[in-house]
Each structure stands twice: as structure tokens, then as C-alpha cells.
Amino acid sequence: MPLAGLADILTEARAGGYGVAGLVVQGWEDAKSYVLAAEQAECPVILQAGPGARAHTPLPVLGRIFAELANSAAVPVASHLDHAKGLDEIKQALECGFSSVMIDGSEMRLAENIELTCRAAELARLAGASVEAELGFVGYAEGAASVMTDPQEAGQFVAETGVDALAVSVGNTHLQTGKQAVIDSGRLAEIAAATANCALVLHGGSGIAAPLRARLAAERLVTKFNIGTELRQVFGAGLRRYLAANPGSFDRVEILSGLMPDMITECRAILAGLRPDRTAPDAQAKKLRSTSQ
Ligand SMILES: [Zn+2]
After folding, report:
1. Calpha distance 211→259 (Å, rounded)
2. What's the average model confidence in pLDDT over 211-231?
3. How far is CA 291 from CA 13, 15, 47, 79, 112, in A?
4. What is the distance in A from the centroid of ligand 1 to the CA of 293?
């Protein structure tokens, strides 16, 4: 199917009380693995081009990869520009056909962040794309510290910018290699109440335990979880195992193809964990009842 819009995917997910993963892509093999995993889990998925991937591979190439995978996928696939700091990157992504863009004014003062986000949102709307912004600052493990999102500011921000999705800082941190994030659920609930028509996003989803991710989604507090580190760890561990087991290997295609089955399995588990409605026995029974009526 053609590329899906982020807003459409998130609206449906919120209504259904499940979460959607925004998966950080670094190349063809992981992108392909993620879409195959999404098909197996019968979940929508968001393929994300982040700053690291863009520095390594030109954005138009990533855009073509995402569109190609979406076109042949049996589930909705959105292509998303992650953490654009300025409008030039937004324009380039929209020209490349991305169905969603994130403008990151999180290090600016509130008024400046609102102004930049409004301009990005206008460009996105003209191109028929969705827009995500960030308020507060999601910090980095062993890097810049977080600034928590203020619920009142979040309400004002969403009302003035009309964004489809808002990334918030409530104890989540980028690049965590363990499940150590402690989420401030009270603050999150206040933000959700103040931004009723906007899907909330947690960057640093790798640091959040899977049952907590599922609960936050089921309570309709968070709809999109950005996940990168967790799957990069799977890749790194798989690569070490593969090379140890195949010391004579030197062919890139052979090696990377050999890693894909594990990538698919692990990714499928992450995606399925965000929508327990697909696996809960009573949900399945409900589904059976509704199809037999
Ligand atoms: Zn992020």
C-alpha cells in the first residue's frame, strides 16, 4: 500500500488503545526487517530517518527505501524525518516524499519553538504530511540532561501549533541501553489532559520496560514510542554471534542477510508488545465472535 500518514496511524492506534513504534532505521536490512516484523505482528510501523542515518546515507535514498517498502507492505508504513532542527531539512524531506516530519525546537524558548513549529506544520500541511514537535527536552544517556515538559505549556503549544504528535519529556531518555527509565505518570496524565487531540510520543522508548510501554498505550497516554537502541543492540549482538560462528565470512550481503531472521523476531516481539489486544485471549475470542456474527 502507499505510504501511510502518521496522523492516520496514530489516530487509529489511540482509538484502539495500542502503541505504535517509530523505529530508527540505519539501512536497507534493518528497514526491511522492521516491515517484515510489522507484517507478521499485523501492526502499523513508522520508519524513521534520524540524524545519524542521514549523515551516513543521503535523505532521498532513505526516502526511496521507505516508500519502496511501504508500497509492497501488507500493513500501513509511514516514513518519518526524526529530529529536524530547521526548515531546510523539513523542505527536503517533504520533497523526498516523507509522509511525516519532526521539527525539533526543544532547545528553544517556548515562543520560538511555537513559531518554528507553526512554520514547519504549514509546510507539512501543504505537502499532505503529518508533523511531530518536541516540548521540554528529552536528554541523552551520558549526555545532555532532560528538561521535563510543563503540562500547561504543552496545552498552549498544541493549541497554537496544531501538531499531530508531541514528543514529551517525562523521565524518558535517549540512548538508554537498559530498561531504567522511570516515567512520571502523573505529569504525563496532566500533559495528556491538556493536549486532548494530540498523540503523545516518548523518545527513548528503548529505556522503557515493555509492560510499561503497553500500559501507557492502553491508558491512551502515549501512542508513539521511538525505539532505536534496543534494536541496534540486537543487531550488534547478532553480528558478533554470526562472525564468531562463520569466521570465514566476508560477503556483506551474506552476513547482513544472516542477521535478519533474529532482527525480525526481536522486532516482532517489540511491536506485538505494544498491542496486547492482538494476543490477549479474550480479544481473540471477541474477534472470533465478531467475525462469526
Ligand atoms: Zn529523539
Report:
1. 26
2. 97
3. 21, 20, 31, 32, 51
4. 44
State how beta strands 45-49 and 77-84 pair. Answer: parallel
The residues pairing with 239 across neighbouring beta strands, listed in sequence order, are: none
Q: Cα of 221 to ligand 1 centre, how many Å?
A: 18
Only one residue has cell 553480528, namely 239
The band of 220, judged by pLDDT with boundaries at 50, 70 and 90, is very high
- Cβ atoms of residues 69 and 47 within 8 Å: yes
Identified catalytic residue from 8, 30, 82, 277: 82
pTM above 0.85, yes or no: yes
Question: Per the CATH hierarchy, to which homologous superfamily does domain 6-292 belong?
Answer: Aldolase class I (3.20.20.70)
Q: Compute the distance from residue 140 Cα to the ligand 1 centre, in Å.
A: 9
pLDDT in tens, 168-186: 999 999 999 999 999 999 9
Tell me what the pLDDT averaged over the chain comes to: 94
Cα(286) to centroid(ligand 1), Å? 37
Please work out, in degrees rounded to the nearest 5, the angle formed at the alpha carbon of residue 199 by the alpha carbons of 222 and 143. 60
Residue 157 C-alpha cell reads as: 503549544
The residue type at 98: F
| Catalytic residue check, 82 | yes
pLDDT in tens, 14-51: 999 999 999 999 999 999 999 999 999 999 999 999 99
Residues with CB under 5 A from ligand 1 (ion): 203
